Amino acid sequence: MSSWLEKIVPKIIRSDSERQSNVPEGLWKKCPKCSSVLYRPELEKNSDVCPKCDHHMRIGARRRLDMFLDKEGREEIAANVQPEDKLKFKDSKRYRDRLHAAQKQTGEKDALVAMEGQLEGLPVVVAAFDFNFMGGSMGSVVGEKFVRAANRALEKNIPFICFATSGGARMQEALFSLMQMAKTSAVLEKLKQQGTPYVSVMLDPCFGGVSASLALLGDINVAEPNALIGFAGPRVIEQTVREKLPEGFQRSEFLLEKGAIDMIIERKDLRSTLARVLRKFVNAPVS
Amino acid sequence: MNPDYLDFEQPIAELISKIDELRLVGNRNDLNISAEIDKLSAQATKLTSQIYGKLSAWQISQVSRHPKRPYTLDYIKGVFTEFDELHGDRHYGDDQAIVGGVARLNDLPVMVIGHQKGREIEEKVRRNFAMPRPEGYRKALRLMQMAERFKMPVITFIDTMGAYPGIGAEERGQSEAIAYNLLKMSSLKTPIIATVIGEGGSGGALAIGVCDHLNMLQYSTYSVISPEGCASILWKTADKAAEAAEAMGIAAHRLKELGIVDQIIDEPLGGAHRDFDAINESVKNALTQQVDVLRQQPIEDLLERRYKRLMSYGVQA
C-alpha cells in the first residue's frame, strides 16, 4: 500500500495488510480480525473469508471478477486505457513513478477492471475497483473505464454491477479526478433513464469521491458484511467533531440500519443473490 | 499587522496606514498635504498591482478565503433583485450552509443557490462555516428541480471548504446526497451556470457545480482537496500547503488553461473585497450574457452539450 494512504486511511482499515505481514508469506495467513492462522489453499477455497470468524478479507479486482462471473464468455472492456500525468504532479515522489510502482505491484494499468460476461447465465457487465492500486483512488482512467463499461451495459441493455472499494479521489490528478465524480454519475443517469439496472456492491473500505458518486447510486446498493463505508474517514470526523464515534459507525450494518443500503450479502452468496434479484429486474425466467 | 490585509499584502497595509495618518493630521490643521496623500496612494496602487501581478497559487488560495470577501448573499443583493429565500429539504431540516431562492436577473426569474459563509462568529456557526450537511444538498436539489418545472435558469455560487465531515451528516447519507445531486444535475432540463466565488472545495462544491457554463472569479480556487489536506497526506506535513497548491493547479487561470473552466471573471485590484460594486457589476454582466446565450439553445441541445462536456473530463481513448 502506498505510504500516503497509510496516513489517510485509519488503522482499522489498514489492518488487513499490516497484520498480514507478521506471518511469513506462503502457505499460511493470519486472519486480521480473529488472528486465527489459516491454511491459504483452504482460505482461497472459501473466497478469502475467514472460516473461523467470517471476516471478509480484501481481494484484488481480477480475482473478484473471476469469482463473480461465469467461467465462460468473458470479455474485458477498455483494457488498454492508460493513465497519463497531465499535471506533471510531483510530491515526495513523482506521480509517474507512483503509477509505475502500482502497475508493477498489481499487474493492472489502473484501479478499475471491467468485463462483460455472464452471471449464472444472465448477461451482465461488471466493474471492480482494485484497492491495491493507489488505494483504489479514482482518477481519469477509472472514470473513463467505468463510463465505457456502463455504456456497454446501456447498448446491450443488460445489468451493470460495480464492486467499489476506494479511498476516494486521486489527488495527483487534482480537479480532473474530482470531475470523474460528475462523469460517472452522469452515465448512471443514462442507465436510470433507459431502465438498465445498476447494482453497486460496496466493499471494505469505500470512501470519499467514490462513495459520493457511483457507489451510492445503485438501483440497489449492497455491501459485504462489516465493510467500512462513508463520505469522510472516521479519523477526519473524530478530529472535526471531537467526540467518540458510535459503536459500529460507518459499518455495513450501520448503513443498513440508517437506510443507505438495501442489503448485506456474504461473499459466498453474492452470485446467487444478485442473479436472483437481477433476473426479476430484467424479467428473465426463474433459472 | 493589519488584519484586513494578508501576510503578503502587509507592505500595502503600511502605505495605507501612512495615508490614514496623514489624513488625520490634515483634518487637525490646515497643512496642505493632499499632494503627499496622492503620491502615497499612487504608490499603494502600484505596489498592489505588482503584488497581485504575480500571486502564487497559495497566495490566491488565501485571497479566496479572505474574511472580507463577498459571499453568496452579497452577490444575491448586488446582482439580483427581488430575492425570496426558500428554506428546507422537506425531509429533515434547513441547512443554512446553503442558501437558495427565487430572484430576478434583470427582469428574468431565476433560481439562485449558493454556499454561504458567515461574517460574525454567531453567523459562522449557524452556517457551519459553509460546510453543508446532506439536507443542504437536498434543499439545493429541491430548488433546482423546481426551477426545471418553472423554466428558470439555475445560477449557483460555490464557496465552501467542503461537505461537513460529521456524525449526523454520515448517518443521514452525506455521500448519497452529493452523488444524487451529481446524477440529477447532469440531466436537469434548464440551463445551469456555476460560479466559483471563493473556495471550491471538493465534492461539497461539485454537488452544486455540475453546469453548462463554469465561471471562476480571478482569485478563487477549485480543487479536489484543500492544499493543507493534500500536503498533510502527500508531503506528510500541512506546512507544504504552498507546494500542494501549486502542484494541484487550483487557481482559476491554471484551470482555464487546462480547459476545465469556461470563463474567468476579473476582480478589482487587490481582490473582490476591495470593491463590491465593481465585482457585482462584472458578475452581473457575465451572468446576463451567459443566461441569454444558454436560454436560446433548445433544451435537447443544451443537455447533449452538458453530457458531452461531462464525458470529456480526463482521459478519452
From TrEMBL, chain A:
Binds 1 zinc ion per subunit. The keyword Cell division does not apply. Zn(2+) binds at residues 31, 34, 50, 53. A zinc finger (C4-type) spans 31-53. It catalyses: N(6)-carboxybiotinyl-L-lysyl-[protein] + acetyl-CoA = N(6)-biotinyl-L-lysyl-[protein] + malonyl-CoA. Residues 27-287 form the CoA carboxyltransferase N-terminal domain. One of its GO terms (cellular component) is acetate CoA-transferase complex. The keyword Acetylation does not apply. InterPro entries: AcCoA_carboxyl_beta, Acetyl_CoA_COase_Trfase_b_su, ClpP/crotonase-like_dom_sf, COA_CT_N, Znf-ACC. It is found in: Cytoplasm. Keywords: ATP-binding, Cytoplasm, Fatty acid biosynthesis, Fatty acid metabolism, Lipid biosynthesis, Lipid metabolism, Metal-binding, Nucleotide-binding, Transferase, Zinc, Zinc-finger. It is an enzyme of class 2 (transferase). Pathway: Lipid metabolism; malonyl-CoA biosynthesis; malonyl-CoA from acetyl-CoA: step 1/1. Its main location: cytoplasm. Its EC number is 2.1.3.15. Its cofactor is Zn(2+). GO terms for biological process: fatty acid biosynthetic process; malonyl-CoA biosynthetic process. Acetyl-CoA carboxylase is a heterohexamer composed of biotin carboxyl carrier protein (AccB), biotin carboxylase (AccC) and two subunits each of ACCase subunit alpha (AccA) and ACCase subunit beta (AccD). PANTHER family: ACETYL-COENZYME A CARBOXYLASE CARBOXYL TRANSFERASE SUBUNIT BETA, CHLOROPLASTIC. Component of the acetyl coenzyme A carboxylase (ACC) complex. Biotin carboxylase (BC) catalyzes the carboxylation of biotin on its carrier protein (BCCP) and then the CO(2) group is transferred by the transcarboxylase to acetyl-CoA to form malonyl-CoA. This is Acetyl-coenzyme A carboxylase carboxyl transferase subunit beta. The gene is accD.
UniProtKB/TrEMBL annotation, chain B:
GO terms for molecular function: acetyl-CoA carboxylase activity; ATP binding; carboxyl- or carbamoyltransferase activity. One of its GO terms (biological process) is fatty acid biosynthetic process. Keywords: ATP-binding, Cytoplasm, Fatty acid biosynthesis, Fatty acid metabolism, Lipid biosynthesis, Lipid metabolism, Nucleotide-binding, Transferase. Gene3D superfamilies: 2-enoyl-CoA Hydratase, Chain A, domain 1. Component of the acetyl coenzyme A carboxylase (ACC) complex. First, biotin carboxylase catalyzes the carboxylation of biotin on its carrier protein (BCCP) and then the CO(2) group is transferred by the carboxyltransferase to acetyl-CoA to form malonyl-CoA. It comes from the Bacteria. One of its GO terms (cellular component) is acetyl-CoA carboxylase complex. Belongs to the AccA family. Signal peptide: none annotated. Its EC number is 2.1.3.15. NCBIfam families: accA, AccA_sub, PRK05724.1. It catalyses: N(6)-carboxybiotinyl-L-lysyl-[protein] + acetyl-CoA = N(6)-biotinyl-L-lysyl-[protein] + malonyl-CoA. It is found in: Cytoplasm. Acetyl-CoA carboxylase is a heterohexamer composed of biotin carboxyl carrier protein (AccB), biotin carboxylase (AccC) and two subunits each of ACCase subunit alpha (AccA) and ACCase subunit beta (AccD). Residues 36-293 form the CoA carboxyltransferase C-terminal domain. The gene is accA. It comes from Reinekea marinisedimentorum. Pathway: Lipid metabolism; malonyl-CoA biosynthesis; malonyl-CoA from acetyl-CoA: step 1/1. HAMAP family: AcetylCoA_CT_alpha. The keyword Membrane does not apply. This is Acetyl-coenzyme A carboxylase carboxyl transferase subunit alpha.
